[in-house]
Backbone:
């Protein structure tokens, strides 16, 4: 019986996968016509990688980092610097020129992505040594500071020959198709899920649950916190590299704190401790953000321009949304549960009952009123 | 007794928090296969003494040896040199500081006075986590499932342990949803899963009724014999302590006020006074 439902669910998953691939193929068949939809979906997939990596750290290890933008910046710049075609570099670095050391090094894209991830991981290891050994509570502040320092370094004039300073980098090779983006994102997420369900994932969860008990089970707190932080930052770096390829041109402003907040909102909204929640959240928030875009444009009603509506107001709306979620809907969409077909069908079955209940309960006072 | 092999030796352990001397010059021994109890009124420093054995605290002064190896040792340093208020005059000791996880790996397991299970994880996972520290695997082999033999071995051992402990039917329950008594049992099972040679129990009978306490008495003897353990426990239930202990140490205000076999302790005027003096405050 159990096996039958299991194979049935596998069949559903396979069906959903085929549908998704079909849909992507449909979009891919007319990239010009669907460029808007494609760009939203690609960005969502990339954010999903970063959100899941944040969840690995926060939802599964109980550590809180706010360095997403910084680690993404590292991955992004490494991918950009090493993949911009050599012949295009003169036009990209047109102000100060490119450092002769880098001028002729061009790496294949997978190698550059890997390098971006490794560089993020290495920096995370360095930050982790002092912070995670003593006061893990300070990780959020330390990484937030680190994130801003990275941005300052990127924009600093003395690194112009590497990062092209405030002019940013362009001509970054893009993805060949939406399948590449989704495939790469899926690979990263699957690897993280495998980790979470492995013996190491159990160790992370034990630390999240109770540090003292975890120690008494022979787990070295620093070692596993550091491991989780380094792995999370690796995938954040890879996600940053993917973002660079998606955007084709980046500068230090791409990696402002607001990027970290976007990821944070995704994780909180999706549910801290739920991978499927983070993936769902990434798609919801990214497409929702497009809907909210009109908040950033000046709004004129009847000749009067509404003062709040200007660039950056969307951030305010986002912060409010985050607060609302944290205050009233703390567990997010998925809580710490994962998506399952049984759960979905259960929800669909219960839905009519729930609606009915809501109707009768709201009708009740009216009836009372009639009797009087 | 003295010809038995020494397992745990605490030597002049002093633990001072700021100006508070919670444990004051405690010296004690636990020998192989013994059940030794540490008793004393509330706030006497019993749990603190345990924390000094497992490395959660680094003692202010003194040393702890396990199976002849010094695992913790220290002497007041820095500001503590001035603040030190213990009875023992500190001699110079080479500091040794094993962390709690290293202590566990050496073979000391423990339970906690306020149960510390991994509340949101299943009963099975709670036990399985204990197997991680000795597993031959690394993060890559575990992620890519190249460690499936090792993983299977960990799972089999955990399952076997749950079966022996009579908890197998609860394996998929969330730990925090278990009734209190079973949570205590699970915490002991989880400690056993680390393959200890010394088991520290901090008030295992807390919150149990007389019948449950009696069952626990038999259970502790049973696991000592089944797993070839030495047991060192803190307990307030005097019936249990007197029935089960080979030897008893009595702590009051951080100091050792008596030690001996149950009969000696029962009739020791100092012990009676220590307990009577605070009997109003004892909650059970
Ligand atoms: N981390 C700490 N910081 C400061 N004081 C502490 C700390 N831990 C324990 N103490 C103090 O040390 C003394 C002994 O506490 P401990 O918990 O060891 O007592 P106990 O004998 O286990 O008592 P009980 O029977 O209530 O469990 C108490 O006065 C307590 O306040
Ligand atoms: Mg205590």
Residues:
């Amino acid at each position: 019986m159990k096996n039958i439902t299991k194979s049935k669910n596998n069949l559903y998953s396979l069906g959903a996968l085929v549908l998704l691939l079909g849909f992507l193929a449909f979009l891919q068949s007319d990239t010009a016509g669907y460029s808007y939809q494609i760009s939203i979906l690609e960005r969502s997939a990339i954010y999903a990688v970063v959100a899941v990596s944040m969840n690995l750290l926060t939802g599964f290890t109980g550590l809180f980092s706010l360095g997403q933008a910084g680690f993404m910046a590292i991955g992004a710049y490494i991918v950009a610097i090493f993949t911009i075609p050599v012949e295009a570099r003169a036009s990209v670095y047109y102000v100060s020129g490119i450092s002769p050391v880098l001028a002729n090094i061009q790496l294949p894209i997978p190698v550059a992505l890997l390098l971006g991830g490794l560089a993020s991981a290495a920096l995370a290891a360095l930050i982790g040594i002092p912070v995670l050994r003593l006061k893990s509570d300070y990780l959020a502040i330390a990484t937030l500071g680190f994130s801003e320092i990275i941005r300052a370094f990127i924009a600093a004039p003395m690194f112009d020959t590497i990062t092209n300073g405030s002019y940013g980098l362009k001509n970054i090779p893009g993805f060949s198709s939406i399948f590449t983006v989704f495939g790469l994102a899926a690979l990263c997420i699957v690897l993280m899920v495998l980790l979470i369900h492995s013996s190491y994932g159990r160790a992370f969860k034990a630390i999240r649950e109770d540090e003292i008990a975890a120690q008494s089970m022979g787990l070295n707190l620093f070692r596993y916190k550091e491991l989780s932080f380094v792995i999370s930052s690796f995938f954040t770096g890879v996600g940053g590299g993917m973002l660079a390829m998606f955007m084709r041109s980046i500068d230090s402003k791409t990696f402002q704190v607001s990027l970290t907040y976007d990821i944070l909102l995704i994780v909180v909204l999706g549910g801290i401790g739920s991978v499927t929640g983070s993936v769902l959240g990434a798609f919801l928030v990214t497409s929702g953000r497009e809907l909210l875009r009109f908040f950033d444009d000046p709004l004129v009603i009847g000749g009067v321009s509404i003062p709040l509506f200007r660039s950056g107001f969307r951030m305010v709306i986002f912060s409010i949304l985050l607060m609302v979620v944290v205050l009233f809907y703390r567990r997010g969409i998925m809580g710490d549960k994962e998506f399952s077909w049984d759960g979905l069908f259960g929800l669909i079955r219960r839905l009519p009952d729930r609606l009915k209940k809501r109707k009768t309960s709201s009708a009740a006072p009216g009836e009372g009123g009639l009797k009087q | 007794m003295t010809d038995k092999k020494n397992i745990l030796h605490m030597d002049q352990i002093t633990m001072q928090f700021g100006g508070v001397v919670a444990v004051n010059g405690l010296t004690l021994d636990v020998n192989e296969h013994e059940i030794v109890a540490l008793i004393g009124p509330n706030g006497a420093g019993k749990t603190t003494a345990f924390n000094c054995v497992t490395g959660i605290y680094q003692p202010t002064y003194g040393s702890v040896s396990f199976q002849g190896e010094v695992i913790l040792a220290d002497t007041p340093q820095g500001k503590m040199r001035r603040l030190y208020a213990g009875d023992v005059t500190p001699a110079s000791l080479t500091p040794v500081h094993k962390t709690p996880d290293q202590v566990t790996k050496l073979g000391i397991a423990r339970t906690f006075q306020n149960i510390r299970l991994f509340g949101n994880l299943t009963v099975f996972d709670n036990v399985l986590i204990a197997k991680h520290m000795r597993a031959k695997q690394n993060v890559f082999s575990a992620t890519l499932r190249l460690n499936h033999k090792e993983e299977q071995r960990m799972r089999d051992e955990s399952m076997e342990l749950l079966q022996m402990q009579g908890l197998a039917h609860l394996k998929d329950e969330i730990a925090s949803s278990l009734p209190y008594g079973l949570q205590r049992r699970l915490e002991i099972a989880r400690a056993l899963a680390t393959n200890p040679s010394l088991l520290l129990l901090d008030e295992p009978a807390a919150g149990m009724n007389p019948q449950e306490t009696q069952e626990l008495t038999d259970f502790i003897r049973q696991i000592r014999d089944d797993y070839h353990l030495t047991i060192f426990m803190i307990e307030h239930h005097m019936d249990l302590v007197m029935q089960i202990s080979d030897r008893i140490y009595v702590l009051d205000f951080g100091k050792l006020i008596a030690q001996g076999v149950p009969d000696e302790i029962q009739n020791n005027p100092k012990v009676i006074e220590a307990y009577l003096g605070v009997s109003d405050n004892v909650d059970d």
About this structure: Chain B touches chain A at residues 54, 56, 99-102, 104-105, 109-110, 112, 116-121, 125, 128-135, 137, 139, 142-145, 147, 151, 154, 190-191, 194 (CB under 8 Å). The two ends of chain B are 33 Å apart (CA to CA). Residues 279-284 of chain B have pLDDT under 50 and may be disordered.
